[in-house]
Design a protein that fits this description.
heterodimer, A: 425 residues, mainly beta, Neuraminidase, 2 domains, five-stranded antiparallel beta sheet, five-stranded mixed beta sheet, B: 182 residues, alpha+beta, 60s Ribosomal Protein L30, Chain: A, four-stranded mixed beta sheet, globular
């Protein structure tokens, strides 16, 4: 056991070696919003050899599908300070907003990054911030700048400075990885010859729960992303799977079989205090918590076909939530608690689908047809999911209104089981 | 997967190639489709002086669990789509393993349920589990206690990666019988 932990820690440390110059996952946008905000992002004043902030910010904004990022090279005066800005130049380009900035060295190999977001029409500043960072934080700072721009111009928080996790399968070997939301800085958390499924982020973003078959049966582990250490959360007789953290991070819901059918349980994050939640003769699985922590949504075939139900965490009767079609699985709740996302099978095809929880209105979102494992971005705007393209497992993303679509590709093997991490602190 | 069948087919080819019966192990083309065939396995094995139909303690040289002549070396029960019912053609196989477990109280099996790759992974994990529980229940009815059996599921995780239709999906819908220590 000790040897394994050391190996894991070593593997994690090895994986932290810089991977900054290229993306493990490339993300391509296909389709955008009906109205896109035209914005110009002027290259920051910064030395060569550093991560280029304007490039990262432009890519983030473009990938969201809500912005038309304009070409700035034709403009004669490239401003880095507000005093240098000629608003007429940018109005001519049809820009509504302009981003400028600079990176200045500080003692101790640190940097001051400052930026301004300006309203071109009103000729006035909208936002401006300064950051004191180390060289290794340059990409993350660019993502935080993109988040500020996104929030100022759309009214919603951004999700660029976040991370995602997913499982890769390459030549029969599985790896659970964590990467930036733009696909950069991929690091392996754990790898194995046996399958890994169902990764779940702790609400504070420091741990992943996941299911590993390395002992030839499904067992739930919790691993710290900070120390690399892990422990077995659940290894009861039979299956242990589908871990889901409570919103306060103190408990997890999970699925056990104890030699019979799949049923829901809750357990403390330290592995104590197991409590049974459901007692049916059906399959009850895939629990997720409502954001207020009072309900659990789950998949059950107690009615004869797999559908999504809701029950109180304190125990009690379950109510059916999905009524269209004969196969609705993999429930996920948006961060504001208003939208249910799931996978619906329709004529042999599996689509990411959303349902308004108050009106009951249902909308299939994806044009892909072998969808699995949807996961909400922490701002509730996008759904990341697994699908298949050309016989290979890939990831994709779609906005909750269905307009913005992204394709994520990884060189190498299959990618599956994505989960979007929580908002940056 | 269905190692037993592959081995049997190879042995059958050997039988065809040879004009006379070899002295020791008698290859037999075993199709585990009907009860008569498995009985003839027993009958054929009985010709071999080193094994008996009881297939346990008296045979010291060949492990019945891995003996290709022995139904115990067959480890997979196959299922119809959306079904967890143990079909009659697989009853003799499950019964043979149940008898082995009753004769060897220290032996333990893991029943691993599997599905084809269509649908959600966690739901398929549960469907695979239904299948392994189904096989367990047949064994329970024959007297085997739960302490000798663990039921687990791999769901779709072992399903063929390039499989796109029923010709290979049906191979994925199965329970594998794995003895502790293997």
């Amino acid at each position: 056991m000790m040897i394994k932990l050391r190996f894991l820690l070593g593997a994690l440390l090895l994986a932290i070696l810089p991977l900054t110059s290229r993306a493990e996952l490339t993300i391509e946008i296909v389709g955008g919003a009906a109205q896109q905000i035209p914005i110009a992002v002027v290259p920051f004043a910064q030395s060569g050899g550093q991560e280029d902030i304007a490039t990262i910010v432009s890519a983030d904004l473009r990938r969201s599908g809500l912005f038309r990022v304009l070409e700035t090279r034709g403009v004669a005066v490239q401003p880095h300070d507000v005093s240098e800005v000629k608003y007429a130049d940018w109005a001519n380009l049809q820009a509504q907003a302009l981003t400028i900035g600079k990176v200045e060295p500080l003692p101790g190999n640190r940097f001051k990054v400052s930026f301004r977001l300006l309203d071109v029409l009103k000729q006035a500043p909208l936002a401006g911030l300064e950051y004191n960072i180390s060289a290794g934080q340059m990409r993350n700072t660019a993502h935080r700048i993109a988040d500020v721009i996104y929030e100022k111009l759309t009214g919603e928080p951004g999700a660029f400075a976040t991370r995602i996790t997913y499982v890769t399968k390459t030549k029969g070997r599985y790896a659970l990885q964590v990467a930036d939301a733009d696909g950069y800085n991929a690091q392996t958390v754990v790898s194995s010859k046996e399958p890994i499924i169902s990764p779940a982020w702790s609400p504070d973003g420091t741990k992943l729960a996941y299911v590993s078959f390395e002992k030839k049966k499904p067992i739930v582990y919790v691993q710290s992303l900070v120390s690399g250490q892990r422990y077995v959360l659940a290894n009861f007789k039979g299956n242990n799977s589908a871990p889901a953290w409570s919103p306060d991070g103190r408990r997890l819901a999970l699925v056990l079989t104890h030699g019979a059918n799949s049923q829901l349980y809750t357990i403390n994050a330290d592995g104590t205090g197991l409590k049974q939640l459901t007692k049916s003769r059906a399959i009850d699985t895939e629990p997720v918590w409502s954001p207020d922590g009072s309900s659990i949504y789950f998949t059950s075939d107690r009615g004869g076909s797999p559908q999504i139900y809701r029950m109180p965490v304190s125990g009690g009767g379950a109510q059916r939530v999905t009524f269209e079609g004969g196969y609705n699985v993999s429930p996920r709740i948006s961060p504001d608690g208003k939208t249910l996302a799931y996978i619906q099978r329709d004529g042999g095809k599996f689509h990411v689908t959303v349902q308004d929880l108050s009106s009951g209105q249902v909308q299939a979102l994806s044009e892909t047809s072998q969808d699995e494992s949807p996961s909400f971005a922490p701002n509730g705007r996008m759904l990341l999911y697994a699908t298949s393209r050309g016989g290979k497992g890939t990831l994709a993303a779609v906005s909750v209104d269905g307009r913005v679509k992204q394709r994520l590709s990884e060189t190498g093997g299959d990618v599956r089981e994505p989960a979007w991490g929580p908002a940056a602190n | 997967m269905n190692k037993g069948l592959v081995v049997s087919v190879l042995l059958a080819a050997l039988l065809v190639a040879c004009s006379s019966k070899p002295l020791k192990d008698t290859p037999v083309a075993v199709e585990d489709k009907s009860p008569e065939m498995s009985q003839s396995t027993d009958a054929t094995t009985a010709d071999d002086s080193s094994a008996t139909a009881g297939m346990s303690d008296s045979d010291m040289s060949v492990n019945p669990l891995t003996d290709p002549n022995n139904i115990l070396s067959k480890r997979s029960v196959y299922f119809d789509y959306d079904s967890d019912e143990v079909k009659s053609e697989f009853r003799p196989l499950v019964e043979a393993h149940a008898k082995y477990l009753l004769a060897h109280p220290e032996a333990k099996v893991m029943l691993q349920g599997n599905t084809d790759e269509r649908g959600a992974r966690e739901y398929n994990l549960s469907l695979g589990q239904r299948r392994s529980v189904s096989v367990k229940q047949v064994m329970n009815l024959l007297g085997v206690q739960d302490k000798q059996i663990e039921t687990v599921s791999y769901g779709e995780e072992k399903a063929g990666a390039s499989c796109r239709d029923e010709s290979c999906w049906k191979e994925d819908r199965r329970v594998d019988i794995v003895y502790q220590g293997e």
